[in-house]
Structure formats: structure tokens, C-alpha cells
Amino acid sequence: MTLNFYENLSNDYVKLLENGNIIEIGEPPVMQTFKVHSTVLCYRCPYLYDEFKKSTINNNDNIKIIQKPQISIKVFDIIIKYIYGATINLEKVETSIIFDLLMTANQFNLKNCFQTDFKALQNFCDDIIAKHPNLIFESNDFNTLPEAALVSIIQRDDLQLEESKIWDYVIQWGTAQSKTLTSNFNDWIEKDFQILRNTLQQCLPHIRYFQISNENIIEKLVPFQQIFDKKLWVDILKYSMTPDKPITSTILPPRKIVTNQLPNRGYTFQITSLIITNEHAAEIASWIDKKEVTYDVNNNPYEFNLILRGSRDGFGRDVFWNLYKPITSTILPPRKIVTNQLPNRGYTFQITSLIITNEHAAEIASWIDKKEVTYDVNNNPYEFNLILRGSRDGFGRDVFWNLCNQKTNVVVVVKVKDTDEILGGYNPIGWNSDLNGYCETNDSFIFSLKNRNIENHILSRVKLASSAIYNYSDYYGPNFGGTDFRLYGNTFNIYGIDSFEKLIRKTTGDFSINDYEVFHIKKR
């Protein structure tokens, strides 16, 4: 039997800090000495080991001393415990100290510490930049940003910047990396565009070209068309002119707009509570407003006014009812706002379907736009264009891929055999036969519609965006979440609930269908 005592070993190593060579940290009067050992430094921090080897300063006890006045005591205390104990705890460390720690770890060439333990710090910084991109993109030092840092920012789905502006900044950065490229690209020759293409080869795949307006394509992309792969450039032009036609390039999803401003510096939210924090209150507020992203603490739109505290007022139910007395008058429900205008008399919505009605289409449209009130039938803002009907075109997965490959904004509906069930799903990013595996979207959903004996609908939105849509043309047709709702071979089935909030039918497994239809929807 083998017994491991790693924790004891780590603690014993930390105790070695009580004797050894000396490093003086800080400057008088704020200075502290740390004792270290060459044997440990040789393996754990070669940078400091080499410093001691070069050192010629000795005290009366023949102990070597090196000085690091530019490093803070707090930072070095964390570093030395990492060297001896292999642990770092950043939970209660101030942000400014973390940044200094990052720089010192880099200076000391602590690769594991720098690359692994500070991954969370990089994500923290990326989060700030994603929400407030002007802090970095408009800074004087933007052009000196390392390529890896720029890529980590522009690949984020939540980068709060228009795609055309992201493109402008990427071009600006790429141009600045070469001394031979001038800001006037009209004077460039073919060699100059090749230099820019080579410089930006890691950045270009993360631009959402298919989310850029036609006007900006002409104004901003056309002058640099030489840096694009020919196939991608053809697809950009094709998609801009005929967005309903399939293309072979990958269409990245649009970025998620979260907030448009920095926290209000003139206002600091503070909740009066012994139980929850300001962060908890912000999270609760975001749930109230059905926001997918939590509010910033100082942009909480609600006040939380304390009216009862058990430890102060008492825990009995009579205390609750006395402090929170209900009113006796009848509270009528709010009026249901259905539409802000009279129906367009020159337009009557009519869907071409053997499965769903105009009312169903209006309900699906309201879910797409995340409306709490269903659209009026004749004010449905979308056209539902039928692209596949199983009874007309065939039920095999090959039929689906031939007719629906790379179609975005797709609604699938299914009529279950021998029941009144109508099941379906919405996929904003489409399925792509060139891809195998999951694709991410926050806006997809699956559903069961009201129909005859089915009195209530079921709406199941995405809970795991990274696996919302599944592509595998060799086995599946339309597939939501891998197992949540899919066409397998010639059969539809539901085998579990992984990526969406809830099941859309009572039983799981294969089920037969009378028909199924696929619609491409677009704003009218």
C-alpha cells in the first residue's frame, strides 16, 4: 500500500523559509527580508538561482543577499509561497496586486504560474475589454498589443463593438506592425497587401464578415479584398446580394450586445442586507428582467428596500403579515398590449403549411423576438418560406441536406403520428454539412404547440449555448442539442434533455410522424 503525504511535504517546504540566503524586498522604511535556499531555487525558480550565483554581497555570516526594491512585499510573499508550496490563492487579493503579480511572475520566468494560474486573470481582463472595448481599442498603446491578446479579444462573442469597427481596428493594428505599410492604402502595391494578409492570418478568421452591412462591405472590405481567400470573398459578396442562397464558408453568429456604457461613477449601489451581497442583488435583478447576462453591480436598475429582517423584527408569520399587509381592494390585471397599430389592410399573412396555422406562426415569431405578448396574426414581422416538406420532397436526411444546408434562420415543425402533437425548433445559425460537431447559439429554442387537445404550449430555450446545434450529415438531419430533438435516419426522436431547458413531450425515444416541414424565415 502506498501512502501520500503531499500536504505535509508542502507545509514542511514552506517552513524552510525561516532560514537560508536573503532577498530584501521593497525600500526603507517599508522593507522585508525573505530567506531562500539555492537548492530549491535551482529547480523552482532558476531566475533567482542565477541572481544568487552572480551575487557578491555577503554579510558577516557569509550569507548571500540580493535586493529587489522595485517588487512589493505583498507580491513577493505570494511568489515565494508559490515557489515553496506550489499554491496561489487570489480570492481576496486586490486587482492591482494581481497585475503586479502577473508582471513579477513573468520577470521570474515562472511559466507554470504565468500560463496556468493566471488564465483566470486573462479571462478577467478579456471580460472587461469585451464589455468596454474603447478602453483598449482607443488607447495610445493599442498598436503595441501582442497578437495573441488581440485574437483573444476579437474571438469573443460578447465583444461590445460593431463588426465594421472591429474590422477597422484590426486593419489599423495590422498596418502598424509593418514599417513599410503606409496609412494610405490607395498607394499600396500587391506586395503590401500580401504583408498585411500574412500579419493578420490569426485575426481574419474571427471577423464576423456575414454580419457586416452591404454599405460597409463596399466601403471597408472591398479596398482590402486582396487579403481574402478567393472562396471567402466570393461568399461574402454572394451572401450580401442573395442571403437566402447557400454558401460554403462558415457563418459565425452575431455578437451578443450586453451593455452600452460603463458603470455610472456617480452612483454606487449598496444593499442593506446581512444575507445577500450587491452581486447577488444584481443577479436577482437580471432574472427579474429575464436577462441572459447579469447586470453590472452599479447599473442595477432596481432599489432593494428592506422591509423585514427576522433577527430584528421577529420570525413569526404574524410579523410578516403585519409588515407586508396585502391590500383589500381587487387588483385588476394589466391590459394585454397586442399591437401598437391597426392591422395593415393591404397585407394578410398566410403561411403555406400542412402542419401549422397562421396563429402558430405568429406565436413562433414572438418567441424569436422574445416578446411576452404574441404578435397579431396579420402583423407577423416575418415571412415563413417553405423549403422542405417531407410528404412532398422526402423524409431522408439526404433530402434535408440538399435543400437546407447552410440556410440560416430556420424553423422546423413536425406533426407526430396518432397524436395532436406539433413539435419543432428554431435555429438562427443553420446547419452546415462541412462541420461535424456542436455549434454555439443563445437564440435557438425547441417547442410544442397548442393544438386541439394540447391546451398549453411548451417553450424550451437554450440553457447550454455551446452545444445548442449539432451538425453530422452522415447520421442526422436537423438536430437540436445532440439528443434534445433530432432527425436520425428517417425517424425523429428525443433521447434526453441536455442543451435546452426542458423536454417538449412527455416521453423520450423514437416517434413516428405524419409529416415535417422546414421554413426559412426573414423580416418582411
UniProtKB/TrEMBL annotation:
Protein known as: TLDc domain-containing protein
Cite the TLDc domain residue spans from the record.
354-522
A Pfam family in this protein? BTB
Q: Which GO terms describe its cellular component?
A: cytoplasm
InterPro entries under this entry? Answer: BTB/POZ_dom (IPR000210), BTB_POZ_domain_cont_9 (IPR052407), SKP1/BTB/POZ_sf (IPR011333), TLDc_dom (IPR006571)
Q: What SUPFAM superfamilies does the record tag this protein with? A: POZ domain
Where does the record place the BTB domain? 19-92
